[in-house]
Amino acid sequence: MPSFLSRLFPKSQHAHALEQAPQAIVSINERDVVTFFNAAAEQLWGHTRDKVLGQPSTRLFTTSDFKAASREKGQAREVQLTAANGRTFWAELAASMTF
Q1: Residue 31's domain is classified under what CATH number?
Q2: Core-most of 21, 37, 41, 42, by most CB within 10 Å?
Q3: Is the distance from CB of 25 to CB of 49 less than 8 angstroms?
Q4: 2 vs 90: CA distance, rounded Å
């Protein structure tokens, strides 16, 4: 069933809104492959989307952190991440399902 927003806005507007969001937004498919990586995510991790799209999500965060966030859908979980330059930082990771 289409979401309320998808009935109001075409898919291209969804992608534009996600791209412009000030928060890092990453989309991962059922095979744990990165399918979307917005500009804020590029800035946060220091990776360009060309280097991340199509890659395993473990390039960005551990499998255990992602699985824990997935179990707690909608609730942020504080995790330690590693940027492209090796710098570690704390961030909130939240997961949600999309259709």
Answers
A1: 3.30.450.20
A2: 37
A3: no
A4: 34
